[in-house]
Structure formats: C-alpha cells, structure tokens
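Can't paste images in this forum, so I'm doing it all in text. The chain is below; anyone willing to post the predicted structure tokens underneath?
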Amino acid sequence: MTDDLFGTDGVRGRANRWPMDTETVLKLGMAAGSMFAQGGHRHRVVIGKDTRLSGYMIEQVLSAGFLAVGMDVFLFGPLPTPAVAMLTRSLRADLGVMISASHNPFADNGIKMFGPDGYKLSDAQEEQIGRSVQSGWNRSLAEPERLGRAKRIDDAQARYIEFAKRTFPKDVKLEGLRIVIDCANGAAYRVAPEALWELGAEVIVMGNAPDGFNINDKCGSTHPDGVCEKVREMRADIGIALDGDADRCIIVDEKGNIIDGDQVMALVAKTWSEAGRLAGDGVVATVMSNLAFERYLNERKLTLHRTKVGDRYVVEQMRAHGLNVGGENSGHIVLSDFSTTGDGLIAALQVLAAVKAADKPVSQICKLFTPLPQVMKNVRYRSGKPLELPQVKKIIADMERKLGNAGRLVVRPSGTEPLIRVMAEGDDEHAVRLAVEEICSVLETAA
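Text version of the structure:
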C-alpha cells in the first residue's frame, strides 16, 4: 500500500474509495501532522480545496487527523493550489495541503502537500508519510490538552488576489483589453476574474458557477474549445483557460487559436532574457516539450533542461540549476521569482504584460516558433514491465537511430495507469508516424 499511496502529484483517486476513503485520509492527516509537528511551539497546517463535492468530506476528515496530533488547522475554502503554497509561507505554517484532483473529473479527488518553504514534498518525505500511514501513526496522538484548534481564514482569497496583482508591472494596466477567462468551475472561479478586473481589463467569465459536480466538465484547460469559440464570438483580445485547481493555463489568441505551454515559456524566456531577468540563461521543461521549442532557445544561446513529466521534477531541476522559468507544454508554468509551483493566473499575467508592452495582437506575440510534427499513442498492458523486454528495447533503439538528429523519441510508462506512452517528433512527419507505429506494434504484441 505504501508504494501506491503517493503518485506523481500527491495522493489521488476516486472519492470515497482507497486511497481517498475516510480511513486512509484520516491516517494521512495524522501521519503528515506527526512528521511536521516537531518542537514545542504550536504547529499549524493550512488547507485549501477546489470545488468538488467530496472536498467537504475530505476537508473534515483530514482536519480531524491533524487536530488529533496537535496541529492547529487554518481552512481557506476554495482556493488555487499556488495560493495554498504561497500562504503556507506567508502564514508561517508547518505544512500546506491542497485538496484537489486538478484537471480530473469531479468523482476523483486528491491531496497535495507543501512543506513550510512552499515547495511540494520530496519523494523521501512522501515515502516516510506512506510508511507511517501503514504502521504506527497511533503513537503520535496528542494528549487532551495538546489537541489542535480549527478556524476559517476569511481573507485568503483577497490575500492571493493582491499577491497575484503584485506580479504584474506596477506602471501597466489592462485597460483596453477584453479578456475571456474560463475558470473550469474550479478553485479560481472567484479570484482569477477579480484580479483581472482590478487590473483594469474587461472580463468575460466562463466556468464560474461550480455546483460540486461540474468542475472540468467540458470546460477549462482540458476542454479549451469553449474559450476559443467565446473569444471569436466576443471579439476578445485573449482567452485564458485554467484547470480545476488553477495551477495550469492555456492561452487562446484573438483568432481563437490555442497557445500551449511551450509557446508561453518561450515568450517569458525571450522577454525576461531581453530584460536581463532570465536566471541561468535557461529554461526547464519536460521530455514532452516540442523539439522546435528547444531549437528556438538554442538559437538565442539559451539552454533547455529536460526532466521527467511532472511539475515537481521541473521545480527540482530549476532549484538545482538556479533557473527561474520552467514548466510543461500542458500549461503548468513555474515562475520561481513569484511562486514555488505552477500558477495559471500568474503565467497568464506575464503573457498579458508582454502583450501590453509590445502593443501587438496575441497571435503575433505568442507564436514564436512552429512546432514540429508530434505523434503520440498509448498502449495498455496487463502486467510486468514491457519496456524491459529485449524486443521492445531493440525496436526503440532502431527507431531512435532512424530518427537521428532530425527527431526525438520518448517512450515512458504512465504514472497513473497501466499504459506505455509513445511519443515521437521530428522534421519528417512520415518518419515520426512510422516510428510510433513500429514501437506500438511490438508493444501490443508483448503486452
């Protein structure tokens, strides 16, 4: 059970089923609380959530676990994941917790944890908590006089709005811009539109009527068609689509075309490099970012550092190399000058700042390179480790050799499902498709 409790981004699963059942969540609160409640002072944990129905149950049970080991609990209610990370530091909490399954449908939920520095917990810390959940959490129960207290923090949303606004240039306003924003009926349904409006924009809001069931339902960054259509309908200057916990965003230009995370990172890197703000002359992205993005950076004598998929690995690499821009092509953008994790609203504000500075349409500002043809396919397997089979290793090596310097191949297991994900990209679309088909054919036979 310990090995499976934490995935690539905290604990996640179907609500009211393991590991998001009440018993496991209670033990998780006790285990994490025990680990961070060290020393004689009063310890505190801050908890935010998105808008899923199950958030009420998980919030109460998780709080009970923290209270039982002597931690005071500060409850924020619906708030973006990056806001929880920021307020963990701001309120000098020992631990921060976000209850969310990000872009997943409402029936799922999850728990993300941040240390007192606002960064997500390391693999070692998660493994330690997992072992505690499995054995021995009872020994840390507090004496009656040391039980924790719980209270609601009413101004958490206002604090985050002010924080987000401070990341925008002081002498710039969004007046004259018509912005469509889709909040995915999720955690940012109040704070994101309010921040944009207070900065002077005309704001057209979508996905801001959560009912516990409609989070990410045909809306938000995983379903951006609605924003694209609304931008064209309203003749807006830009569209912004957030996901359920607002740690990622997709940008839409004035023509209704999608601008992915690679283009956003390229824009920020270009803008910050020209202003002397880009630390380390490089950017961190995952193995899934397009090769054209890497070439774009190289032409400007900037380096692309690649990591495994997952924003936590991006952040680890950024910290290791002293870089301040990183992210994923899915829209997780980490700007460490402002935040310790992906922040969809802050990323969008940086795009808007560049648009205002250039006084040009988004389509001209954000289209910095033409992505190379990229083909992806998933192969489901029953058991074992297909990537370790000799015939699979051979076909991967053969296809890598055929693509050479004109392309790139990524074959990796999914972190959440029994799938092998096969991705190839390169200058020759036919060669790319052939490489994916050949590898998948061998995998399907082996699996």
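The chain has a mean pLDDT of 95. The first helix runs from residue 2 to 5.
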